[in-house]
Every structure is written in structure tokens, then in C-alpha cells.
Design goal:
The protein is an all-alpha fold. The protein has a domain of about 40 residues. Helices cover about 65% and strands about 0% of the residues. The protein has three helices and no strands. Helix 1 packs across helix 2.
């Protein structure tokens, strides 16, 4: 008895094209590196570009977050909130012991 199998067709995203003209020496360098990794030139270049892109974005975002955190810290130092009841009680307890 033969089973009926339902084939699901998935739409594959059509790959985009990227072309670059590079000096022969640079292409030979990239080909050598790809060969050492046991991969195609295309896979090597795309993988390397993706790693560099991810690292660049991460570095940029970290710098942006550091700047935002610095601004927030400076604002908190220059504009401290008024002490609330819990802070005043803690200060009172501190003064009693010291």
C-alpha cells in the first residue's frame, strides 16, 4: 500500500545579486583563504562580510548605548530626586548608630 504524501511548496526568497570589481591580487588572496577554509569564494566572502557587518553594528550600538547611559547618569547626578520616606528613615537609622 502506498502512502499519499502531501508536498508543501515553500516559497524561497529570490537571492539578490552583489557584484564587485577587485584587483587580481586581492581576489587571489580571497580565493586562497576560501580554499584554506574549504569553502567557495562566494561563501567565504559573504560569511566574512556578514561577520564584519554584525561586529560593526554591535560596536556602533554599544557606543550609542554607552552615550545614552552616560547622559542618564549625568542627569541623575545633576537632578537628584527628593528623598522619599524610606530614604529618610534609613538616614535616621544611620545617624542613631554612628
Amino acid at each position: 500500500m502506498q502512502r499519499n504524501t502531501l508536498k508543501v511548496r515553500r516559497r524561497r526568497e529570490k537571492p539578490g545579486r552583489f557584484e564587485a570589481r577587485i584587483p587580481t591580487a586581492q581576489k587571489q588572496l580571497l580565493e586562497r583563504a576560501a580554499s584554506l577554509r574549504g569553502t567557495s569564494l562566494t561563501d567565504f566572502v559573504l560569511g566574512s562580510a556578514q561577520e564584519a557587518s554584525t561586529r560593526t553594528i554591535k560596536d556602533f550600538e554599544m557606543l550609542t548605548l554607552h552615550a545614552q547611559a552616560s547622559d542618564a547618569f549625568l542627569y541623575a547626578l545633576l537632578n537628584p530626586p527628593a528623598p522619599n520616606q524610606a530614604l529618610q528613615a534609613a538616614a535616621d537609622r544611620y545617624r542613631k548608630h554612628f
